[in-house]
Amino acid sequence: MSSIALNPTGTGRTPVSAWMTPWQAWGLILIVPYVLVFVFFVLYPIGYGFWLARRPETYAHLFEDPIFVRSVVNTLVFLIVAINLKMMIALLLSGFFVQARTWIKWLSVLFILPWAVPSIPTIMSLRFMLNPEWGVINQLIFRLTLEDGPNWLNDPTIALGMAMLVHIWKSLPFWTLILIAARLSIPDDLYEAASVDGATRFQKFRFVTWPSMQTLYVTCTILSMIWTLGDFNSVYLLTGGGPGDLTHVLATLGIRYLRLDQVDLSIGAIVVAMPLVLPLVYFMMKRLSR
Length: 290
Known about the structure:
Blueprint (H helix, E strand, L loop, with lengths): L21 H31 L3 H9 L1 H32 L4 H15 L2 H11 L6 H10 L10 H29 L3 H9 L4 H29 L3 H4 L13 H10 L3 H27 L1
Helix pairs in contact: 1-12, 2-12, 3-7, 3-9, 4-7, 7-9, 9-12, 11-12
């Protein structure tokens, strides 16, 4: 007499094992290739890079490089000036674009285009326009004044300023949209009550709009700082770190070291940025947890 083994559920089907069903087994089989790709092409290069940068002499050489010191200063200037200027402009523009006028709605479509289009063609186009010899901007200045325009990208101060303006121009629509959504979520009853009390437009902003948006504004500012630390396009595509490697930021400095075949210094430049990132992440998460 033969016996038939049934599984405990009484369905007549024996699972692959006591802890995995056939569907779970197939799911595991399909996930394994992605896990292997992640391990070999993401975890292994990062781990190898940090292993190369573990030596103290790596950071000694890094701190002795004047280009690294200049890059840290440029990064701090980028964060303090560009981010705060961008968020203040976004706050002002959010009040402009919430107005229910047809021409403002059409203007908002044009305003969002810099953020929607890819970075490479737009920033490279601006780089060609700023060429001191045949760029359209200097050509226009010459026709109007009969004088040569400034050497935009060959002066470190002007070049870094232009990189910050490009960053502001490219990411401003995104943060403006977020602040517009915050303004639209404020109840109209608060503004009507303020009007009844005789409040001016500035008083409405100070006592109604700003208290309602303050938390979101600070959170967006911190998040923008975190993202800007990794912003590679604005500087590298416009100036390439030049002239003389004087406009590099920490996000682009690693590429310079990689081109010089100094992988340990490249990873070290990324590790050095962590003391700037971690306090921002901690402060943002602490504010959100409230």
